[in-house]
Design the sequence.
């Protein structure tokens, strides 16, 4: 009998990923700061200053989108310029037009998905409203619905979930630094109420 050859695990193929990271606490793009960022590994990024924030636009080769973003954030922090990583520049709140653009479908078709006139229905509810007639949806929730209905790739949904979770974590870290007392108060106030029954015996009424 011939032995079956065991398949060797294939290594992920490296790809180039494009994304932008928003930085705070870096009021100017000085030569000193740029040198430090490039020496720390950010030589694959283009830096620009807009609205008082620094945008680092990366084209990074990595095994995955997650690895590319996480390594970029680590390199920014390693530069020790005082810059604070605020978020990945990918907004989770999207309009119907944004959804249409992201999935390369018409605005009319997306409106039909939302109303349930096309597709399986149960489109996610809006996350908030700019005004009564301008709803916004959470892209991470919409991407899940799209994935379930085979309208986007699983990779696209995973990226949406990752960016949402990462930006939420970065926001919480920033709030802990800026408002430590408030964050402690909220943590105590939102502590789950214990559902354990009281150890005392119930009082019998005669």
Sequence:
């Amino acid at each position: 009998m011939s032995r079956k050859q065991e398949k060797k695990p294939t290594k992920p193929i490296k790809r180039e990923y494009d994304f932008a990271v928003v930085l705070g606490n870096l009021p100017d793009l000085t030569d000193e700061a740029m040198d430090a960022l490039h020496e720390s590994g950010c030589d694959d990024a283009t830096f620009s200053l807009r609205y008082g924030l620094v945008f680092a636009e990366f084209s990074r080769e990595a095994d995955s989108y997650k690895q590319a973003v996480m390594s970029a954030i680590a390199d920014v922090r390693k530069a020790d310029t005082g810059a604070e990583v605020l978020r990945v520049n990918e907004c989770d709140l999207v309009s119907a037009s944004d959804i249409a653009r992201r999935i390369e479908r018409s605005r009319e078709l997306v409106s039909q998905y939302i109303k349930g006139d096309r597709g399986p229905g149960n489109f996610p509810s809006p996350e908030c409203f700019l005004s009564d007639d301008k709803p916004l949806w959470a892209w991470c929730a919409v991407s899940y619905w799209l994935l379930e209905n085979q309208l986007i790739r699983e990779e696209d949904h995973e990226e949406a979930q990752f960016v949402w979770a990462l930006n939420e974590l970065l926001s919480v870290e920033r709030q802990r630094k800026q408002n430590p007392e408030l964050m402690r108060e909220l943590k105590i106030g939102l502590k789950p109420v214990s559902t354990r029954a009281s150890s005392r015996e119930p009082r019998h009424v005669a």
About this structure: The chain has a mean pLDDT of 89. Residues 93-160 form one domain. The first helix runs from residue 31 to 42.
